[in-house]
Amino acid sequence: MTDSTTASRETLGFQTEVKQLLHLMIHSLYSNREIFLRELISNASDACDKLRFEALHNDALYENASDLNIRVSFDKEARTLTIADSGIGMSRDEVISNLGTIAKSGTRDFFSKLSGDQQKDAHLIGQFGVGFYSAFIVADKVSVLTRRAGEKADQGVRWESDGGGEFSIEMVDRATRGTEITLHLREGQDDLLAGYKLREIIKKYSNHIVQPILMQKEEWKDGKYEMLDEDETVNQASALWARSKNEITEEQYKEFYKHVGHDFDDPLAWSHARVEGKQEYTQLLYIPSHAPFDLYDRQARHGIKLYVRRVFIMDDAEQLMPQYMRFVRGVVDSADLPLNVSREILQESKDIDAIRKGCTGKVLGLLSDLAENDKEKYAKFWGEFGSVMKEGVGEDFANKDKIAALLRFATTKADNADETVSLKDYIARMKDGQEKIYFVTADSFNAAKNSPHLEVFRKKGIEVLLLSDRVDEWVVSNLHEFEGKQLVSVAKGGLDLGALEDAAEKQEQEKQADEFKGLTDKIKTSLADKVKEVRVTHRLTDSPACLVAGEHDISGNLARLMKAAGQKAPNAQPILEINPKHPVVLRLQEDNVRFDDWAAVLFDQALLAEGGQLDDPAGFVKRVNQLMLEMGK
Ligand code: ADP
What we know:
Mean pLDDT: 90
Shape: elongated
Radius of gyration: 32 Å
Strand content: 15-25%
Bound molecules: adenosine-5'-diphosphate
Number of domains: 4
CATH class of the largest domain: Alpha Beta
Oligomer: single chain
CATH superfamily of the largest domain: Histidine kinase-like ATPase, C-terminal domain
């Protein structure tokens, strides 16, 4: 692992995932190569923000030079490009972990999903964020010189790599704090060695950066550019969110998003507002256009940066957004919070509660607006983040109705899982006499769609919502009604179709319950503890039997989900319902040969049909074969 050429110089290997990232990036992003500058400037800006924040408590970190800026320069002869910042810098350990590994949870998982198809994978890399390593798109050697603010001059660090499998690191003297990144350009990248070209890229991607981005002034003289002994600021260098909306172009909003969101793609939508009143703050909140790879990791970074009067305070201020909106990215800049606010203080702060409420309301408003006015965008949002929004039904009591209005579900009225319906539209197209919103839960769209519990609904043309997302069980256990209409599982409790059934049907059902009383009792005796009850049903048209959960028990689907997650599910026995019109049931009514086997098979197939697992699959197979043989006789 070590190959010392000088006393402190070491060569270390990159983490495997870094190697994969480098390889993928170099091969898939060159058509977008200019973004490397945006990424490096974005990091430099973050480093300046961090220094400013740490210096709030420790002024010495400025080392008597409180200027925070970013400098971009080039050397035509040497064919190098340098991005330097006067930010926080890095210690040796920080360099090794920041520029040698990827410290995001779920990284390994992400890379294991890559297909090797560069076209496809190039898209995925956007979800991951490219960052520092994007330097290797245009450079075949990168050299980083850095020193952490406040450390002695001999604590400088030089990091170097050609983007292959390893990097070298050594301690060097460095008088100034901050980081300087020098790119040795690849063949064919020489157009980047021109002031006007770099200015163009900076204006395009980094205009919104708060710190000044400095470049040496140039003058056109005698047919070429002459360098002057003076710097100029290339970007606008003011906080974008603090400007008024009509001064900001759509492009600027998008570029700013890529910086705060560490994202490669444009955002889907955003909301920018200054809030006045008891709390005064500015919010600029973005909905990304795709889910990050670690969306389901509740420990993953959150996307809101907190500023107090333009001073950066912290990244990932999770108190500013509820968990179910953890995909939102952006900035909140408070005019009231103290500069020395810490995460601990945030947790208890009433001011923060008010800001969170405000931000939550804004995002809900933005989403309702999309749902109403831009169905296509909303469908995209729902596809990416719907499962996370659903968590909100149980998490955010105050906004439950608003969240419920944003929910979308697959339905028996559509052919595929992507064609969804809102609860509002469902109600609008309910059948005459229908009082309730019906749903079925299962572990996949197909299982839900083919559930035997839907038979009577299909026959009567009643729409049923098909819920197959894991979180759906959580949704329906928290959402009992919408706009006065009860949500009812078609696989739970007795089937009461209310006015959807006429008097004749009801009469017939009562009659059959009497007629089959002997049979249902007998099956119950045979199945004993496996079932809570056996009864005649009118849910079924084609199947002989199905299982339903008691009114107050958990559904079979939920019990299975809990077991799969290693949780202990309450042991609720199901109710077996039999179809009095089915030939198998009629035969049982008349014939007593092998009654116990018939009853067991009836139960097992009902369990299979709803996606359950048999306790004794071999026993089931044996019984079915036995019965088949006898039928043949
Ligand atoms: P990300 O910015 O998404 O965390 P990067 O790969 O771009 O990922 O950077 C990794 C880390 O390296 C950063 O989080 C930061 O801690 C550190 N870093 C990168 N550039 C600089 C810089 N110019 N100054 C100080 N630290 C930096």
